[in-house]
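Expect chain and fold; see below:
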Amino acid sequence: MIKVVNLCKSFSDQVILENINLNITKGEIHGIIGSSGAGKSTLLRCINGLEPYQSGSVKVDGVEVNTLPLQPLRALRKKIGMVFQDFALLENKTAYDNVMLPLQCWNVDKLTRHQRVIELLTLVGLLDKANDFPKTLSGGQKQRVAIARTLALKPDIILCDEATSALDPQTAKSILSLLQAINLQTKITIVMVTHQLEVVKAICHRVSIIDNKTVALTAPVIDVLLQEPAAYRKLIGSTVFELPDNQTCLKIICTDSTADQQILSILAQQLHLNFQVINAKTENCNGHSLTIYYISFIISELTHVCYFLDEQKIRYIHIKSVITNNEVVDVL
């Protein structure tokens, strides 16, 4: 669907993206995350042909974006919708007219336009707001109108640029649920650019982390949460525990199954393991609940505990805090 190979993008002498490689498959919700100024939005603009790039390749459905003449580029953009952080609605037009605007630009006949707008306002739950102007709508309602407008031309891809960043948590959650429902219903490909990990956890199937101008990691979201690779830990900060020399630490990841949730009791009762829970947290990942425990115990028990967890098919990561020259380093 979207294939990016060795993409390089600069503004004057400032390199923004360098050797970006990315493969987004049809029908997935793909998150792109990184710190502010990492080049996430620039990457989106390269994908939809709004920004030219100096070298590399960006192909959408096998078509190279950078070399397209104006008319074919217009046709390509018709297949790619955009949802922006600031909604980008026309304040002097009603919700109905904002959704209808792309259809007018493409000379769709009046009856078809009307039917499509009614269908989309119904889809996003705003049919009763059809004649309202943006200034009377809440932030969440504005974003719903923007999503309906994006869907007007039946695109194959939606690019979301910080689509929930300006919204309160509850409203953001409802917008993410709407996008997820649209993806399930239409199999449309959605690319979510965000700096919010909660957005990625909520609806994305896979995530790419941009760091130091390139893609440092692409993986299923659930694997990133479970394994905490280096690029992810750099983004969120390392989990570091200062342990005595004879102690070690395991990160144990439990799913929402009853067997997993009882693992600490089993370790205490069956292995007679003397351990301490030094941290615990719950993560929600695309509808799945994960409970994560960090436990410490005597290092001589490590092999025995790991063997037992392997037998029980419980996911875990061995973490050992190392202190050198007053610097604490996480070793997995």
